[in-house]
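mind reviewing this fold:
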Amino acid sequence: MSSASPALSHLVFFTLVDNSAENVEHLIQECQTYLDDHPGLKYFAVGRLNVDLSRPVNDKSFNVSLITVFEDRAAHDAYQVAPRHLEFIERNKASWKQVRVFDSDLAGN
């Protein structure tokens, strides 16, 4: 068994106060500007809810999804206090009705 720290998945689902197409696009742009290209970030993606997928298991209670994978817990922890991440929060938190975060250690890394 490896003693290396596993990669960490940090998924964030934003529900906006005003979920107009313009506000959704604005938050996506803000994510791309402030949350991509951090040290230790292995994967970054941001997008909007796909309204056409309507199976009973689909959670449709969000407007924007952010998917990040960090090389390890230390990289994730550094990201949380990074100035660009904190600036993103300050610039955008008033537009959020709800934010749900799902963090998990990834197997096989």
In short: The two ends are 11 Å apart (CA to CA).
